[in-house]
Amino acid sequence: MKSKVTSAQVAKRADVSQSAVSRTFTPGASVAPGTRQRVMDAARELGYRPNAIARSLISGRSRMIGLIAAYLDNQFYPIVLERLAKALQARGYHTLLFISEPGDQDDELEKLLAYQVDAVVMASATLSSALAKECLDAAIPVVLFNRDVPNSPANSVTSDNFAGGRCVADYLIAAGHKHLAYIAGAEDSSTNRDREAGFQAGLDAVGLPLMHRAVGGYTHEGASEATRQFMAAKQPPDAIFVANDHMAFAVLDTLRQGLGVKVPEEVSVIGFDDVPQAAWRAYGLTTVAQPTDAMIEATVSLLFDQLEVGHAETTRRCLPVSLIERDTARKPSS
Question: What are the structural domains, with CATH classification, of the chain?
Fold first, then answer.
């Protein structure tokens, strides 16, 4: 096998110093255009690739951001991860993805930290306050994306889930619905907690009870089974609010194909997230849109405030949502 080409060999071929080679391959470093061109030409001729691991040992920065995610069958998160990775790459960082099971992600985070990442983003995942403080003490920024843990030292970026749940209740009530149901996601997730609390607040404001409630666990199967239980009740619901779009698709499939129920003539259905499939003609899902791009921008901004500016204060950002009217919910008359 051929031996690896070194930066010293590139420097000799380009007739520059070895430090000039290092600066050429360091994002943001200052190097004269002519020198950069000679180094790049020499590197291409010799087949040189800079050693990112070695450079990280020298600089103390890996330029890697760890991502921990769960619920990847939910169409919202693959979109988020792709856009987030591209946004970080545009700033000279790369991502290391760990997939975890729903629940306590501390074990996965411990494994991820062994790779000397500069920061961590936890999407659809949470961590204990103890481990969040451990990261803080080690100067490793942590951002919870679409999750919030009260009193945690970790930063968080969420949409206004409470306001989203409240606007769904107001919309359905204005459309004349009296028998409302809710399909929860995961009981312990802040997104589910806040969406349900907002929905319940809207019902309480007009004295309407929540007729039916079930836990779908953010799964297609769980939402389908909950729908069948609701519709088999003596008084079935005339509207169902579902904690996310992924489950709402299952509700629509079960109502239309499984039970022959007309939507929205007999039952209105509203989801949450506004993933691209919600706009497909087969679904036409009325839903609450999360401001995905703004949430990603806020996440990247928080990371770099801490990584490059040195801002240390814990920050929680909550961004506004909007109701997208399509075809699965009866519209208010006014």
Answer: 1-46 (1.10.260), 62-158+292-319 (3.40.50.2300), 161-290 (3.40.50.2300)
